[in-house]
Amino acid sequence: MEDFPVSLDFLKQVPLPSNLFFLTYLLLFLQHEEANSEEVKVIGPGESILAIVGEEVDFPCQLSPLLNAEDMEIHWFQSQPSDVVHLYKGRQELFDRQMAQFQNRTKLVTTEISSGKVVLLLRSVVPSDEGLYGCSFLSNNFSGEAIWELEVAGSCCGQAPAGTEEKMINLDRAALLK
Question: Which InterPro entries does the UniProt record give (predicted)?
Answer without folding.
Answer: Ig-like_dom, Ig-like_dom_sf, Ig-like_fold, Ig_sub, Ig_V-set, IgSF_BTN/MOG
